[in-house]
Amino acid sequence: MFNQFKMPTKIITGAGSISEIQTLALTRVLIVCDPFMEQNGTAAKLGQLLKEKNSSFSIFSEIVPDPTIDIVTKGLVEAIQLKPDGIIALGGGSAMDTAKVIRQIYLTAEKDAAVQLICIPTTSGTGSEVTAFAVISDPADQSKYALVDDQMIPDYAILDPLLTVSVPKNVTADTGIDVFTHCMEALASTKATDFTDACAEKALKIIWQDLVSVFNHGENIELREKIHNASCLAGIAFSEASLGICHSLAHALGGRFHIPHGRANALLLPHVISYNAGLELEKELPSLQQYQKIAESLGFKAGTSKATVHAMITGIQRQFKQMDIPKSINECGIDPEEFLAAVPELAEKALVDKCTLTNPRVPKKADLEVIYQRLLRGGC
User: Fold this and answer.
1) How confident is the model at residue 374 (pLDDT cuts 50, 70, 90)?
2) Helix H or strand E encompassing 59
3) Average pLDDT for 349-368
4) What is the distance between the alpha carbons of residues 178 and 261, in angstroms, rounded to a whole number?
5) Do the strands 56-60 and 28-32 form a parallel or antiparallel pair, or are they unpaired?
6) 3, pLDDT greater than 80
């Protein structure tokens, strides 16, 4: 079976690069953002850039965390009324994922339409600006669904680090850990290639070296740009290699208990690494060598493969602690009894999540239940 690697999104980077929106051929634009982007004037600034090029625009600013099917429907109605030739997603993963699905459905209905999708991320986390992925929530069954379709890959990604300077410290941490998890899972994926590894390894090292510094010194534009670029590199990697059960488990956990996605990944990642590497087994799994390689790339080296991976897990937890990331469900304000009661259903949803397909170790439902249960105490 042959592998392939594609990078259809044109990426524009650098401080002030939002101005490049004026170089694109756009006449009617739907700006998709959350209310804060409209309130703080960022959407208006973008609108002014479009006005100067005689482009008309409409702002759909109803995006919320964990965007729902209803939100997508409202945005689709806006698109049908406007008939745009461009949709600009301004914000974090929620805005970008919503814009992707809006365009996808709109183009399905309007078969002769041509709509460019431009993503301008204002957080450094999802990598959604270059991926075929979108995550949409269904409150009716408290679930998140990972949608995957190459037609959702954006045409342009504009990475302006100036838009990330005002991001709060906790969001910087959560989104940065999401990037770190993207890298880890892309590297361990059964669909990983030399090409995806190159992007994931570079992004992983940037996050490992600089995320804590950005957490403490968010006004540093140079560091913000590095983290912003790392997020995009990780997106390039996992868009092709896909992910693993850390994201599957996080999707189910976030859908049920509304924990921010990056924070859910942070809670789960040490336990997932331990499981995927088979640290609890007497025999050595093939995936152990992959995690040893990842650990050594981050500077960890011990007497055995398992000891090396154990050292990496301890190092990851130490770094998470520096950014005030909780280690257990209890620290997130979730009732332990309610959580335990939900575990079987969460595990069932995670098992059928698309990200599970490329996990390096094939899990059973019982395995996923055990990982969830370990969140009660936090340690590995």
Assistant:
1) very high
2) strand 56-60
3) 97
4) 7
5) parallel
6) no
CB 283, CB 268: distance < 8 Å: no
Candidates 56, 66, 133, 124; CA nearest to 88 is 56
Helix pair 169-188, 245-257: axis angle to 10 deg: 140
CB 304 within 8 A of CB 341: no
Q: What pLDDT does residue 379 have? A: 58
pLDDT exceeding 70 applies to what percent of the chain? 99
For range 149-157, the mean pLDDT: 93
The Cα 62–Cα 70 span in angstroms is 10
Q: What CA–CA distance (Å, rounded) separates 269 from 195? A: 24
In this structure, what DSSP letter does residue 68 have?
Answer: B
Residue 298 class from Cβ within 10 Å (0-12 exposed, 13-18 middle, 19+ buried)?
A: middle
Question: Which pLDDT belongs to residue 378?
Answer: 62
Structure tokens at 102: 């809006």
pTM: 0.92
For residue 65, what is the DSSP state? S
* pLDDT higher than 90, residue 34: yes
For the ranges 118-122, 145-149, 344-348, the lowest mean pLDDT is seen at 145-149
Q: How many CB atoms lie within 10 A of CB 349?
A: 22
Q: For residues 186 and 172, what is the distance between their CA atoms, to the nearest angstrom?
A: 21
CB 276 within 8 A of CB 244: yes
* Contact status, residue 196 vs residue 186, Cβ threshold 8 Å: yes
CA dist., res. 97 & res. 92, Å (int): 9
Q: Cα torsion at 27, 30, 34, 40 (round to 10°)?
A: 30
At residue 285, φ and ψ (nearest 5 deg) are -85, 155
Q: How far apart are CA 211 and CA 218, in angstroms?
A: 10
